[in-house]
Each structure stands twice: as structure tokens, then as C-alpha cells.
């Protein structure tokens, strides 16, 4: 019987498989595909967490990861990051210190 571990525990064993998936995406025209992004996509979209799996199951999941799933993940991440950056900017410009600086400039 093959050993089951969390997907994170198997990560060092599957680096060549991740690299193969990166190269596959590059050959398909997705030059910006990176191992870490593919790994995060698998954790968030395919496995929905860090479940226990056998090594062959993880390898199979990586090889079956489609460009569509990967791009959908990246799109959601981009929207979430944009929202975060917009929120940070809104807080930064609405912070009381900036308001007092703006008032001081008005009187200069």
C-alpha cells in the first residue's frame, strides 16, 4: 500500500512534475506560468486545501490541470489583489494625517 501524506509534504518529490507543467504551459504560449502559481492553483482550486493524497494522485492532478482552470485561478487572484490594493489606497488617502496635510496646503 502506498503512503498517504498531505500534499505539502509531497511537494519536494513532485518538483520535476511541476516543472514539466510549467514547460507545457510555456509551449502553449503561457510564458508567464510559474511553479509557485501552479502549486497555489492546485491547492486552492483543485484540492481546496491541503488534503492527504498518495504520490500518484498528486502527479495525476498536476498533469490533468488545464490551462482554463489555471487561467481562471489567476483571474480571480488578480481581481482579489486589485481590490486589496484599492482598499489600501483608499485607506492611505483617507487617513487623518493626510487630511491635516491637505488642510495645511489649502492655507499656504
From TrEMBL:
Record InterPro entries: Post-transcriptional_regulator
Top-rank lineage group of the source organism: Bacteria
Name of a matching Pfam family: Post_transc_reg
Name of the protein this chain belongs to: Post-transcriptional regulator
Amino acid at each position: 500500500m502506498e503512503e498517504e501524506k498531505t500534499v505539502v509534504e509531497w511537494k519536494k518529490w513532485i518538483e520535476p512534475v511541476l516543472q514539466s507543467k510549467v514547460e507545457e504551459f510555456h509551449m502553449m504560449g503561457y510564458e508567464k506560468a510559474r511553479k509557485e502559481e501552479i502549486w497555489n492553483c492546485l491547492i486552492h482550486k483543485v484540492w481546496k486545501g491541503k488534503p492527504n493524497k498518495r504520490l500518484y494522485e498528486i502527479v495525476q492532478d498536476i498533469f490533468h490541470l488545464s490551462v482554463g482552470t489555471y487561467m481562471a485561478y489567476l483571474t480571480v487572484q488578480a481581481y482579489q489583489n486589485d481590490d486589496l490594493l484599492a482598499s489600501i489606497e483608499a485607506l492611505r488617502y483617507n487617513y487623518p494625517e493626510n487630511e491635516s496635510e491637505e488642510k495645511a496646503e489649502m492655507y499656504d
